[in-house]
From TrEMBL:
It comes from Aureimonas populi. NCBIfam families: PRK06141.1. Coiled coil: none annotated. Transmembrane segments: none annotated. Belongs to the ornithine cyclodeaminase/mu-crystallin family. SUPFAM superfamilies: NAD(P)-binding Rossmann-fold domains (SSF51735). This is Ornithine cyclodeaminase family protein. The lineage of its organism: Bacteria, Pseudomonadati, Pseudomonadota, Alphaproteobacteria, Hyphomicrobiales. Pfam families: OCD_Mu_crystall. InterPro entries: NAD(P)-bd_dom_sf (IPR036291), ODC_Mu_crystall (IPR003462), ODC_N (IPR023401).
């Protein structure tokens, strides 16, 4: 029996195949169902003194159905040659045979599922009448956030802040083409006070969003900083909010926004209210009132990649599309 070659998905095909309402719904079902714990990402030093490099692996599986692994390489000196520092590939395999099903552009998959997980959390944590979104950052994930949040909230206005004005204006034009009323901002503190949802997607090592600037009822979404040395919020933002995470294991091992307040003795890990499994399954409540400040901290979970990869690959199988229509 001849084994067909795995299907390759480009970044453009990932974008086209993972519409946000569908992806958010799939992630919600995955987190609600739960399952066995997945490994936190593992890193290896693989470069040389002249060309330092790091390999990250993120495996996940659903027994009897699917398994996959995201491979990420980080070679910082690539930028000297005009190459990107980060490269990524996702390999999806059949869970019954182990045979490869798909090779997927890893960066596009990561950007899409990260923004969708942010929107899933917002569905439980932001006010239903949230209309103004502040995006902090101008990278690839930041560019996805307005569309993702608009899938769950009536977002009309997008405030956009970035350190480099040369990157703010092109992104603002792209978002305007998607139908958003976009306003680039230079005063971040003021913009935080005007927003219903503040979503940060940066690699900052210093606080950008300060608790003193958050007005009652704001939802703070922190998805950029993903190591203990990084942070996007100050201690006051964490101590003044009800805090939620994507997974306990990942956030309490890697999230500097939480680990640094813990190390300073001003906050405790036990104050995390819930993770996405508990929110999506209804085991714990999200927002309790219009005036409270909520905070969602994510560092990424391998099960999100697997869910998105399955959704992308299964979307081309007629029998699954028909079952979805009938169901």
């Amino acid at each position: 029996m001849t084994q067909s070659a795995p299907r390759h998905y480009t970044a453009e095909e990932v974008e086209a195949g993972l519409a946000y309402p569908r992806l958010i719904r799939a992630l919600g079902e995955t987190f609600a169902k739960g399952g066995e714990p997945m490994p936190v990402r593992t890193g290896y030093e693989v470069g040389t003194e002249a060309a330092p490099g790091r390999l990250l692996t993120m495996p996940a599986w659903e027994r009897g159905r699917a398994l996959g692994v995201k491979l990420v390489s980080v070679f910082p000196r690539n930028t000297e040659s005009g190459l990107g520092a980060v490269s990524s590939l996702y390999v999806l395999l059949d869970g019954r045979t182990g045979r490869p099903r798909a090779l997927i552009d890893g960066e596009a998959l990561t950007n899409r599922r990260t923004a969708a997980a942010s929107a899933l959390a917002s569905l439980h944590l932001s006010r239903p009448d949230s209309r103004t979104l502040l995006v902090v950052g101008t990278g690839h994930v930041a560019a996805q956030l307005p569309a993702a949040h608009r899938a769950v909230r009536p977002i009309e206005r997008v405030l956009l802040w970035g350190r480099n004005p040369d990157r703010v204006l092109p992104l603002a034009r792209d978002l305007e083409a998607q139908g958003f009323d976009v306003a680039p901002v230079s005063d971040l503190s003021r913009a935080v006070g005007e927003a219903d949802i503040v979503s940060c997607a940066t690699t900052s090592t210093e606080p950008l969003v300060r608790g003193a600037d958050l007005r009652p009822g704001t939802h703070l979404d922190l998805i950029g900083a993903f190591t203990p040395a990084m942070r996007e919020s100050d201690d006051a933002a964490v101590t003044g909010a009800r805090v939620f995470v994507d997974t306990y294991e990942g956030a309490l091992a890697e999230a500097g926004d939480l680990l640094q307040p813990i190390a300073a003795g001003v906050w405790q890990a036990g104050k995390v209210v819930a993770d996405l499994h508990e929110l999506a399954s209804g085991k714990k409540s999200g927002r309790l009132g219009q005036a409270e400040i909520t905070l969602f901290k994510s560092v990424g979970a391998a099960i999100e990649d697997l869910t998105a990869a399955q959704l992308l690959a299964d979307g081309e199988r007629p029998e699954l599309r028909l079952a979805a229509v009938r169901g």
